[in-house]
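tmp note - Aromatic-L-amino-acid decarboxylase
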Amino acid sequence: MDAEQFRRAGYQAIDRICDYHSTLRNRPVTSQVEPGYLRKALPPSAPTEGEDIQVIADDYQKYIMPGLTHWQHPSFYAYFPTSSTFEGILAELYASSTSNPGFNWSASPACTELEAVVMDWTAQLLGLDRSFYNISEVGGGIIQTSASDSALVATVAARSRYIREHPHVAIENLVLYISTQTHSLGMKAGLVLGLKVRTLQVTAQDDFALRGDTLKAALEEDLSAGLHPFILIGTVGTTSSGAVDRLDEIGEIAKNYPFLWLHVDAAWAGVAYACPEYREAYHLPAINNYVDSFCTNFHKWGLVHFDGSCLWVRHRRHLIDALDITPEFLRSKQGDAGTFLFLWSCCFNVDGVCIGTAIDYRNWHLGLGRRFRSLKFWFALRARGVNGFQKYITDCIKLNNRFAQRIYESDLFAVVTKPSLSMTVFRIAPKSLSNLETLELNALNRAFYARLAARNDIAFTQTDLNGVFCVRMVVGAEKTVESDIDYALALIKEEAMILVGNWARMRG
Ligand SMILES: *Cc1c(COP(=O)(O)O)cnc(C)c1O
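out:
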């Protein structure tokens, strides 16, 4: 292909991407294909000879597009959103165009330096304490692939710190603490690292938040049994219901157990700290005072398309102590000069003068090579600015409040837990059928959810809160507006009326 053909294919791709975004509203939200549809449609082997880009690009529209769920669709309320900006998507093209595994400073100085800068921008945007900034040269921030990777890395660092400080402890006596509402990333970290996991209980009365006393009782019990709890994964905004652990209480307890690493997983909700009015109620002061590491995914509710999970640590040396294995060929005068020399060395200008320290991000995550993800953060944050970012967050919360308010007022539905930011967990609970047993009501709600899931013009997800089956609604697509919320309300009402009518007839 010559340069002109490349250019034409490139223009066409951009055109089609723009068309996709401007016609999103007219598409079905969820894909309706059958499992295995693609295997049937595609040849069993790669072509022997190269094919024309036009044919490949057309096949993308023909075969791949029908199998996609449109997460940016204004009626997508399932899981958590994965928002994006067009500017960030363009940044991704630029980043891909240099195909660059920037694992250390000299592999591509801009990759390391931009990441260090945007992680300080985002730390500042969220109101994190300065000790988490890269510029502090003590703590720092890194972009990981997912919150699961962030939690795994934090657990590796915590384990390494604990073993260093307690060299005679057997690994099988270490315990990782989570709550019943912690995302499966807690169990997975335990599984991958071969750790005992203790699941702490939470209650509906506490809105599914982990309390300080529960932690204290577990610590006392385990310590007297000769076990070694070494990390707690707390959550701000649980996946099921948006619950917020009582980090204020947890921090006060943990102060007396300084060997316990506190990691906070705020994968979805953490970006709301960009709006100062949410900082106090969602325990940012406790994060700033007590925690060792904090994670939020900008690729959920932070206008940066997948992937971009931000992890900040109070002491970067714990990451490096745990993860630095520097063979000779990766040593450079700008990076971690091997553990036996000095963990942090200077970047030198052409005259050999130190002009600041370089981070070796390869020692802050599990792999070696890393994607150039900071570029899309840089584009997205600049395109929206702090004001635009805050407005997006508050707009989502307002839209969810509109939804929650109607649910509160309704005779058909009930809110199951207090709405959290842009999330409402609700269920059918018809006043006309108020004598239904829990099990019957769960069955009714399963049937309700099945009706919703069979539609392709809207997407929700289900959850179970201590035996109560319910439906989650999370606002986050940038294109969602009030009329979309009203459409969702009308639609769930219509489905619920049909079901409640049938139910009453069946029993009557
Ligand atoms: C979505 C979510 C996760 C998982 O995020 P990944 O980045 O996909 O690993 C973890 N914790 C919470 C609270 C979440 O909402």
